[in-house]
Write a structure and sequence with these properties.
The chain is of the alpha+beta class. The protein folds into 2 domains: 237 residues, Rossmann fold (3-Layer(aba) Sandwich), CATH 3.40.50.1360; 101 residues, Nucleic acid-binding proteins (OB fold (Dihydrolipoamide Acetyltransferase, E2P), Beta Barrel). Helices cover 21% and strands 30% of the residues. It contains 8 helices and 20 strands. It has a 6-stranded mixed sheet with strand order 2-1-3-6-12-13, sandwiched between helices. Strands 14-16-17-19-18 form a 5-stranded mixed beta barrel. The radius of gyration is 23 Å and the shape is globular.
């Protein structure tokens, strides 16, 4: 099995091989995964595979690495439009919203990556998560003046309810305390790491509220910016993009009858109509079927025992980032590791008073 560093190297090299061409201006990210992308650019320049490249680094340490490899550098002052930027991420949700800033460079990273026609994210599969927040704290760069006041203002923001702001100490290059003085960024500011015990419900709203807070320089939410995410795991390399079937804006507006085989990336909510029923799978595997419905009809969800345990006793459930698959010649809603199944008592009023249609959608064309 490949080590984590080997996985990082795989995605870093692939991003450069697939997206960097001669005669382009590129953004070079910061961090342990981006390191390998910078290394690959240097290798291909030295071999002659790449020519006439200009690069904009996102930190002092990336600048130093690039210079040591002979990569010609420039700045946004001279080149405000970049062809591509390549960088890692600390957490990636199913919609490719990101948390960045574990290395303390997210302010400069965001400036550079917003100027790129394509922003390619490179991660190993440990960075993929169901929802932003619990897997990695959200870094927020703030001015040093009255920083404790700013931290209290951040904690009081509605979209960040429940967060614990922690001032980063020691080096700004990692979020582990390794000193007793506040970490200082390349820009001379402090960093606050926001810790969460449950997923952030609306990362975009959280980002907007942070941006409007006086004293905040920049936050680590990168929402809606990624062109593609290259992911390395034990099964190889995969590429995920934000595209795909349209997602329903509100779960309660879903229409079961509009789901088709091979559809994916949608949210489905329904009233639970029966108890989970155990069904044998292939070999020794097993799964459970749960029928949910609303006024448009009903459909059967195929869930794992872990997913069933999470919705035990629920009156209604939500399947987020779900897919539709054919199982034993029947359509079933399935939620894999990129999605999430959860109870929906708070949504129950919006569907519980509706009559559930007798129509069971199975072979929808």
């Amino acid at each position: 099995m490949a080590s984590q560093d080997e996985l990082k190297k795989q995605v870093g090299y692939k991003a450069v091989d697939d997206y960097v061409r001669s005669g382009t201006v590129i953004g070079l990210g910061t961090g342990s995964t981006a390191y390998f992308a910078v290394e690959r650019v240097g290798q291909k320049l030295k071999s002659g595979e790449l020519k006439d490249i200009l690069a904009v680094p996102t930190s002092i340490r990336t600048k130093e690495q690039a210079e040591s490899l002979g990569i010609p550098l420039t700045t946004l002052d001279s080149h405000s439009k970049l062809d591509v930027a390549i960088d890692g991420a600390d957490a990636v949700d199913p919609r490719l919203n990101l948390i960045k800033g574990g290395g303390g460079a997210h302010f400069r990273e965001k400036i550079v990556e917003m100027c790129a026609s394509k922003f390619i994210v490179i991660v190993d599969d440990s960075k993929m998560c169901d929802g932003l927040g619990p897997s990695f704290p959200v870094p927020v760069e703030i001015v040093s003046f009255c920083h404790e006041h700013t931290m209290r203002q951040i904690a009081a923001l509605p979209a960040l309810k429940g967060c614990e702001p922690v001032l980063r100490l020691g080096s700004s290059a990692n979020n582990k305390p390794d000193g007793d003085k506040p970490a200082v960024t390349d820009n001379g500011n402090y960093i606050v790491d926001l810790k969460f015990t449950s997923p952030i419900k609306n990362p975009k709203a959280a980002a907007e509220q942070l941006k409007s807070t006086i004293g905040v320089v920049e936050h680590g939410f990168f929402c809606g910016m990624a062109t593609a995410c290259i992911i390395a795991g034990k099964d190889g390399i995969s590429v995920k993009t934000p595209g795909g079937p349209n997602k329903l804006k509100k779960a309660r507006t879903f229409q079961i009858g509009k789901m088709n085989p091979d559809s994916k990336g949608f949210t489905v909510v329904g009233k639970v109509l029966d108890e989970p029923k155990e069904v044998p799978g292939k070999g020794t595997s097993k799964f459970f079927e749960v029928t949910i419905g609303d006024s448009s009809g009903k459909v059967i969800c195929s869930l794992t025992d872990t997913q069933v345990e999470k919705i035990k006793g629920a009156k209604a459930i939500i399947c987020r980032n779900a897919s539709v698959r054919m199982i034993n010649s029947h359509i079933r809603v399935v939620v894999d590791k990129w999605g999430k199944v959860e109870s929906s008592d708070e949504e129950f009023d919006s569907i519980g008073d509706k009559n559930v249609s007798d129509t069971e959608f199975e072979l929808v064309k």
